[in-house]
Specification:
Largest sheet: 2 strands, antiparallel
Number of domains: 1
Radius of gyration: 21 Å
Number of strands: 2
Number of helices: 13
């Protein structure tokens, strides 16, 4: 996911002009000399902003839901995501054109204009939970992957006696816990840096590695599928539908980037078309990736698909590359969280202790979650449904209600209801999976 996608307000991370070219999602410049993005660059930026670690949990999700049901969910969520992203664009255009508002640069700013402090607070809360959720998933992925690579058994949930704490013969930790705690002091240091713009190019590296990993996995999938035929299920029933929807919503999370991207588009009249083509392409890629992974490994498909790969230099290099990019992406994704927390609890002042408490909280949550895909479903259901569906439809309804017909109001109201149902039932389903795991 991109560098600035989830900034909740215009007080987010600023990028010096000399560094702007290296940042995939350009910040807005208010000096009148900004360089606007072509359609091809906008397409690339949308791809970078949306495609993230969630894609690695799709094959396991397709195993849980059935391959046909999983693919259908991907396209349904993509269509709904596109519609809600455009609702934000239309809402801002209406406010700026007809009501004289200006400098609505972010989702949070839009919430403030439409619903006052309540709207701003709602966006802030969802941004904090979603960004922190992404970072929890990063820690889970890194710890499980390192356990898979380093432990000869490849079992990240092996006996606590497998690895002992350094310097202690009395206390022991499971491999996953050891790796998460091992990252903790380094993340405290990285999250104590006031300005993280020099880490911004790593968001490009992250997506290059992500695409490379997907390529390696898909080649392995095709090879295995041609060698052996697994017993596959197309549909596994309604009981797992909301679980799959949660993961799909997580995989398409990127609602916070749409307003900054539309601001930077050179041809704003074609932005909707570019966004639609981008999401359709990502949907096809997600669908093929999930189906091929499940077809190759069947019931043996793991929550992180790269852990299904055989041992070898190339596969382990890809896995380590993913771990490295997520490790350094962690402070970038936490920056909007720190911005909100410091704005609300430290008078907008830099507060290292508050940052450390937040990082500790994220670390503790990661220790408690056993399964990568289960956690993706929880965040997608509990947070991303509200952020990506409910709030855009609510803001659009409030701004356009005086000129909307019954059908248009019903559509916005329907999206709000669907989003709330997805969030409620999906959260319950995901929590049940995590508790019983």
């Amino acid at each position: 996911m991109g560098f600035e996608e989830a900034s909740s307000s215009s007080h987010g991370l600023t990028v010096p002009a000399e560094d702007a070219g290296s940042v995939p999602l350009l910040q807005g410049h208010h000096d009148g000399h900004r360089h606007l993005s072509s359609q091809s660059k906008t397409f690339a930026n949308i791809f970078i902003a949306i495609v993230g670690s969630g894609v690695l949990g799709l094959p396991y999700t397709f195993k849980r839901t059935g391959w046909a049901a999983g693919a259908l969910m991907i396209f349904v969520v993509a269509g709904l995501t596109y519609h809600c992203m455009m609702l934000l664009v239309y809402t801002r255009r209406k406010l700026e054109k007809d009501r004289g508002f200006s400098k609505i640069t972010s989702f949070g700013d839009l919430g403030l204009v439409v619903s006052g402090e309540i709207g701003k607070f709602a966006v802030d809360v969802m941004i904090v939970l979603s960004q922190a959720g992404f970072c929890v998933s990063y820690l889970i992925f890194i710890a499980n992957t390192l356990a898979h690579i380093i432990n000869a058994s490849g079992d990240e949930d092996s006996s606590p006696s497998a690895l002992n704490l350094i310097g202690s013969g009395l206390l022991s930790l499971a491999p996953k816990s050891l790796y998460i705690w091992g990252m903790f002091p380094f993340q405290l240091g990285l999250n104590s840096i006031r300005t993280l713009t020099r880490l911004a190019p790593l968001s490009i590296f992250a997506d290059v590695v992500e695409i490379g990993a997907m390529g390696v996995v898909m080649v392995e999938d095709v090879t295995l599928f041609l060698q052996q035929h697994q017993a596959l299920q197309a549909f596994r029933g309604l009981s797992v539908v909301f679980y799959g929807l949660g993961v799909a919503v997580f995989a398409f999370e990127g609602i916070g980037m749409v307003l900054p991207l539309e601001s930077e588009a050179a041809d704003k009249a074609k932005f909707g078309k570019t966004l639609g083509v981008s999401l359709f392409f990502i949907s096809l890629m997600y669908g093929f990736f999930g189906v091929l992974g499940y077809f190759a490994f069947g019931e043996e498909t793991r929550d992180i698909i790269t852990n299904n790969l055989g041992r070898g230099f190339l596969t382990e290099l890809v896995q380590l590359g993913l771990c490295i990019n997520l490790f350094f992406s962690f402070p970038l994704m936490m920056n909007p969280v720190h911005e909100v927390m410091e704005r609300r609890f430290a008078g907008k002042r830099f507060c290292v202790w508050l940052r450390w408490v937040v990082v500790l909280g994220v670390t503790l949550v990661a220790l408690l979650v056993p399964n990568f895909a289960d956690f993706l479903s929880l965040v997608g259901s509990a947070v991303c449904c509200t952020l990506g569906f409910v709030l855009p439809a609510w803001f659009h309804l409030k701004v356009f209600k005086e000129e909307m017909g019954v059908l248009q109001m019903a559509v916005d109201g329907g999206i709000i209801i669907i989003g709330l149902v997805f969030a409620t039932v999906g959260t319950w389903s995901s929590l049940a999976e995590i508790i019983t795991a």
